[in-house]
Amino acid sequence: NLDGGTIRNLTPGGCPGSASNATISADGNTIVFEVSASSGAIEIWTVRSDRSGLRQLTSRLNAATHPSLSADGSTVAFVQSGQINVVRTDSLSQSAAVTALRFSAPQSPVISGDGRRIAFLTGPNASQPGAVYQMDADGSNLHPIYALRAISQRGVASAGSCAAAPSIGSLISTYGITFTTLDRLVTAEVF
After folding, report:
1. Burial (Cβ within 10 Å: 0-12, 13-18, ≥19) of residue 22
2. How confident is the model at residue 116, as a pLDDT?
């Protein structure tokens, strides 16, 4: 319960490392979390709140982090290999990447309660996020929810601030946060 009166270990001896970043489904029945193994691997695991069903959901060489769980506990969104992945908790299916970002890195995905949409932060690789995007859980209908004021739908308003003129290199630093595999990179020489 939430007052801490009945704290219990849900994974006694079952996980090969330390658990962190746990999240619980709205119905209180399913929990997902990261496990950091002594080998350095970080994987996503799930367990039922009654201690049954302890299971590893991911098993790749690249770290799987930032799990987010749908309200009914059936679907998990997480970051792995620089993409957002989705996997069902109730089957032995493999996780599938639902983004194909090349010039930006998704961070902190949050799956909607009904499991149909995912919102996430994005920014240049290994950098601070600069925008919030949303998409359907299958990766379709990707669109921005919030982008820096310096980014305008008509082009770069400014790369450094809203008052300064953009420089020639600004398109990479500013628009790099929103490139997808469908975008083409074009050289800008004059503004």
Report:
1. middle
2. 94
